[in-house]
């Protein structure tokens, strides 16, 4: 097993599932040939380090049309030192997992452009944080430095697929506000900004409306952006 093989397995485990396009952007960015990526993924599947979800991803951003989706396989489970008997994590494609990976790849793309430096990132469940009895569960945490500016910022990312009710979004917003109010400088030097990434402009308006109605103060800690291209707006 090569170092890149091990890194691919760990990435697939961290995000739960990755499409071939995600693997290519994460681990083959100096060689974006689909052939090279597919050859390595096929070998990892044959060695049962990864398992292919028997459904092709139609459409999607970084995954791309016709890309297979991968998750950890039986041998990969043992390689990672996981406990218990192996069973396939999922039987079908988990689009939310893939959209979180989309968001992360967008940040990596900005880093490779030279504008940002990615200092740290976390995925669930390592993003879960309890402050004063209030637990928040963002999909993704990123900590970035702005190259040439001497400044940094942290973000909690919520990847919204448009399926949750606005009352659920309202409750989520209030939990973040309570967590912010309960936090101290020992928890965070600067409380992370909370960004909702949404699929379309209508959903963007709906969630912005929830924030305006429900948050009298601290509304500047929230932002709502279209998922595609959001990382260009990080500043």
Structural account:
With 235 residues, the chain is an alpha+beta fold. It folds into 2 domains: 3-91, Winged helix-like DNA-binding domain superfamily/Winged helix DNA-binding domain (Arc Repressor Mutant, subunit A, Orthogonal Bundle), CATH 1.10.10.10; 102-233. 38% of the residues lie in helices and 24% in strands. It contains 7 helices and 10 strands. A 5-stranded mixed beta sheet has the order 4-7-8-9-10, with helices on both faces. α7 (201-214) links the parallel β9 (193-198) and β10. The protein starts with a helix and ends in a 9-residue tail after the last strand. The relative contact order is 0.11.
Count of distinct structural domains: 2
In whole angstroms, how far apart are the ends? 39 Å
Structural class determined from secondary elements: alpha+beta
Helix content percent band: 25-40%
Q: In terms of per-residue confidence, which ranges show pLDDT below 50 for 5 or more consecutive residues?
A: none
Average the pLDDT over all residues and give the rounded result: 91
Beta-sheet strand percentage?
Answer: 15-25%
What's the helix count? 7
User: What best-fitting shape do the alpha-carbon axes yield?
Assistant: globular
Largest sheet properties: 5 strands, mixed
């Amino acid at each position: 097993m090569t170092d890149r093989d091990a890194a691919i397995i760990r990435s697939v485990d961290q995000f739960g599932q990755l499409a071939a396009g995600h693997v290519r952007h994460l681990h083959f960015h100096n060689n974006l040939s689909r052939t090279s990526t597919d050859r390595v993924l096929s070998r990892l599947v044959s060695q049962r380090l990864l398992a292919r979800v028997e459904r092709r991803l139609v459409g999607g951003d970084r995954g791309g049309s016709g890309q297979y989706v991968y998750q950890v396989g039986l041998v990969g489970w043992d390689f990672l030192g996981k406990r218990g008997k192996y069973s396939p994590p999922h039987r079908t494609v988990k689009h939310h997992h893939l959209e979180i990976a989309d968001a992360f790849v967008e940040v990596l793309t900005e880093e490779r452009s030279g504008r940002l430096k990615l200092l740290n990132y976390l995925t669930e469940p390592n993003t879960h944080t309890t402050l004063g009895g209030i637990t928040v569960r963002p999909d993704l945490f990123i900590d970035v430095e702005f190259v040439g500016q001497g400044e940094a910022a942290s973000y909690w990312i919520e990847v919204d697929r448009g399926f949750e009710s606005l009352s659920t979004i309202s409750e989520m917003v209030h939990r973040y506000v309570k967590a912010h109010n309960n936090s101290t400088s020992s928890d965070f030097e600067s409380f992370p900004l909370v960004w909702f990434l949404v699929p379309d402009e209508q959903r963007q308006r709906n969630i912005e409306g929830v924030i305006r109605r429900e948050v009298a103060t601290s509304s500047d800690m929230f932002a709502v952006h279209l998922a595609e291209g959001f990382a260009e707006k990080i500043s």
